[in-house]
Amino acid sequence: MSSPSTAPPRTLRSLEGLRAIAVIFVFLSHALVLGAFTDQDAFSVLNTLTGEGRIGFLAVSFFFVLSGFVLTWSAKPGQTAVGFWRRRLMRIGPCHLLIAVIALSQFAAAGETIRWGPAVANLFLVQNWWPEQDLIMYQFNGATWTLAVELLCYAFFPLLLRLVNRLGTRALWYGVGGLGLTAILLPAVSYPLLSGFPPSEFYPAGSWPQLWALYFFPPVRSIDFIIGMFLARIVATGQWPKIRIMPAVLVNLGVFLLLFHLPIPFGIAALYPLPTAMLIGALATRDLSGKGTLLSGRFMVWLGELSFSFYIIHLTVMFAVHAAFAGDLVGYAHAYTRTPFGTATAIAFIIGLYALCVALAWVVSNTVERPAMRRWSRPASQRAPRRPEPAPQPQP
Q1: Structure pTM?
Q2: Per residue in 121-143, pLDDT tens?
Q3: How many CB atoms lie within 10 A of CB 283?
Q4: What is the DSSP string of 146-164?
Q5: Which run of H or of E encompasses 199?
Q6: In angstroms, what CA-CA distances link 244 with 237, 277, 303?
Q7: Does residue 303 have a pLDDT over 70?
């Protein structure tokens, strides 16, 4: 594997800060399905402001595009495929296993029957490969379906990177445009082909296979990741146009508002990759100019660095806390009694949940995620040697 030859990788702090915003969008889209509001009018207002969950869809697309961008941007000369795969598995594996143990322990303590088929599929991150609703919706941590997509992307990344690094500017732009157009056309193609199935309780606008094909199926979602790879090369070779951040933000906002007037299938994933790529490119070039942004401040970068730990724990935490109000030990994937609150209390509850998730993400990041990366992401022969302990000094 090789890295862009035109410039050494640099830390792009604004992109790290943008992770914090994206994970808040995911958190809000999930918090609003807790059933925490007594006043349904207030809930409807908040639900509309978040696009009825679409901000979560937008954020997920951003994470996939950013993943392809960052891995391409930071790839080093001489990096082997096996070494890359080891580092990526050590990044996602320990936190994933931690939540699996916690969630399954909750199930056991509550006397909940564990459905081992979906549980095992979830554990090995293969739950997205079949259009079976239970494999994705009944799992101990619903956030991990994105890790199944990432695993596919990690598998092909070393080989595809060699190709991407050889492409000229025109081919890179054709790649971005062609993949973006493919994502846009997928709903028009897949919906008629998968129209013979009954509506899904999780997706009233269509059947479960239709939702699966557009949102969960790993090869389809890898389109976003590959766009990110092309984008990284375009930025690294200095071919990204001078697009300011505010126009890129307005384009994303415009697409978000447009989705209210388009058929629902287009609001799942089809229109997000290109606008998010535009924003990532604008922020990256701003950072490279040395100017920075509001997102590149220390606090936003700190939140962004916690984004993976936050993402992997947030569903387990928020549902467990909400279930505790009804005296239940299990929240996610369990039909617990939902406790609603008045509007002000419900908003305070959601803010408190966010703060709790940040605090626990910090704990998980510093006790599991980062130590695992330091200890196991490289073979023992390649790890930095520990500094020798200073010799004890005689007391005077």
Answers
A1: 0.90
A2: 999 999 999 998 888 877 678 89
A3: 25
A4: HHHHHHHHHHHHHHHHHHH
A5: strand 199-200
A6: 18, 13, 24
A7: yes
